[in-house]
Design a protein that fits this description.
The protein is built from 16 helices and 13 strands. It is of the alpha/beta class. The protein is globular. The mean pLDDT is about 95. Bound molecules: uridine-5'-diphosphate (UDP). The site of uridine-5'-diphosphate has 20 residues, from helix 3, helix 11 and helix 12.
Length: about 425
């Protein structure tokens, strides 16, 4: 069997306060025909990054609906994850060399994983490219029963995908019964499938990362990391990945610092097991810091977990997500949900979440990021108004309940 991810229990009823009783009832009614269905989600990492974040809530909520849902992760090797990170970059538009050797290593490792698949399922949901060839490799094993529906969930933006790499993956993807995307714009024109569905991700308002944190508690947490809660703070929470542009955030911070000398910056990023590039980027970012004590470079290695992320996002006057490419960018909704205005790179799913000038700003350059940060730090009332509007936007569009409803609809429609 693949490694099974242990999960907390969650109850849909607890979401009534934030999402409304009617939403909960609607979801329960829609999910009634799925009672007892077996659903398996497969991805590449149990922690770090948005997919792990989503599944940690989605799978327990499916269980609460009476569905036998599970989450398993594929195993890899440093070599395999180095290749899949190249693939990830290539699918987001980077030029890479896609050699026969890389393809061989990729397929062999997926085959190893396919041989570990056990059990029978009504639905198998494969997340992102790392396990995309599992269905092809599963062949006629028991997991691939005649009525099993396979769904590929793509969390990344394939608008400028490297064609050679995409053409390698396309036939594997097309074997699935449906694919699910964050935005219709991400779907390559060459993809031929009967069911192509849009269902953007969401945040869990009841997770430790997003729960309300009393201010004194928040202040104590940030102080433990050397951050002064009485001085202005900018915050970006992201894996250490060039597409998240941490160096650009430091450049923007430096411009802000000239106008607002008291400003501090926190860059918090966990190191995911499927992202070997993280350690290298961390070093580059550390170097770019030039020993500035007001730039707090943090990761899970310094015990930065969900509570700390929650505190940093709340302590910040402005949340930043200056991505150059982005699938969705959960951190944007996380910031907005905490009533903070968010400055985001004009990329992918960030544009779904930020309504420019209403709940934050979409930026195309370091200078714009700096200027909007200065404006917001100088006008706290406006920042508060924007944050409040952002919270409502997230409530309507990007909470776990909305995503759950989308998936329940998809599952029932595939067998209906
Ligand atoms: N995250 C975290 N700790 C960190 C860095 C990131 O918990 O140190 C979380 C972050 O809060 C968010 C997710 O990882 O929930 C990142 O998701 P996003 O969609 O923003 O980006 P991805 O990593 O999937 O590209």
């Amino acid at each position: 069997m693949l490694e099974r991810v242990p999960l907390l229990e969650k109850s849909l009823a607890d979401y009534a306060d934030v999402a409304g009783e009617d939403t909960i009832e609607r979801i329960r009614a829609a999910a009634a025909p799925l009672k007892g269905a077996r659903i398996l989600h497969v991805n590449a990492t149990a922690y770090g990054g948005g997919v792990a974040e989503l599944l940690a809530t989605h799978v327990p909520l499916l269980r609460d609906l009476g569905i036998e849902a599970e989450w398993q992760v594929i195993h890899g090797s440093d070599e395999f994850f180095a290749i899949t990170k190249h693939v990830h970059n290539a699918l987001q538009g980077a030029a890479i060399e896609w050699t026969n050797e890389m393809q061989r290593i990729y397929l062999e490792k997926v085959l190893d994983n396919a041989l570990l698949l056990e059990g029978t399922y009504d639905y198998v949901v494969i997340h992102d490219p790392q396990p995309a060839a599992l269905l092809a490799m599963a062949g006629s094993t028991s997991i691939n029963g005649p009525s099993t529906k396979w769904i590929w969930r793509c969390h990344i933006d394939l608008t400028d995908a490297n064609q050679e790499v995409w053409e390698f993956f396309r036939p594997y993807v097309e074997q699935h019964d449906a694919s699910v995307w964050t935005m219709p714009e991400f779907v390559p024109a060459s993809l031929s499938m009967d069911r192509i569905v849009q269902a953007p991700p969401c945040i869990d308002p009841l997770s430790v990362k997003n729960l309300d944190l009393p201010e004194p508690f928040m202040r104590e947490i940030v102080k433990q990391y050397g951050i002064n809660p009485d001085r202005p703070l900018l915050c970006q929470v992201s894996r250490y990945d060039p597409w998240k542009d941490p160096l650009g955030v430091i450049e923007a911070y430096r411009i802000v610092k000239q106008e607002i000398p008291d400003v501090q910056l926190v860059l918090a990023g966990s190191m995911a097991t499927d992202d070997p590039e993280g350690f290298q980027v961390w070093e580059e970012v550390d170097e770019a810091r030039h020993g500035d004590h007001d730039i707090h470079l943090l990761s899970n290695i310094q015990q930065v977990g969900n509570v700390q992320i929650n505190a940093f996002q709340r302590a910040a006057e402005v949340v930043i997500q200056k991505s150059l490419r982005e699938g969705f960018g959960l951190t944007v909704s996380e910031g907005l949900w905490k009533g903070r205005p968010v400055i985001g790179g004009r990329a992918g799913g960030i544009t779904l979440q930020i309504d420019h000038g209403e709940n934050g700003y979409l930026v195309d350059s370091v200078e714009e990021c700096a200027q909007y940060s200065i404006d917001l730090l100088r006008d706290p009332e406006r920042a508060t108004e924007m944050g409040e509007s952002g919270k409502e936007h997230v409530r309507k569009n990007f909470l776990s309940t909305r995503e759950l409803e989308d998936w329940v609809g998809l599952f029932t429609s595939l067998t209906g």
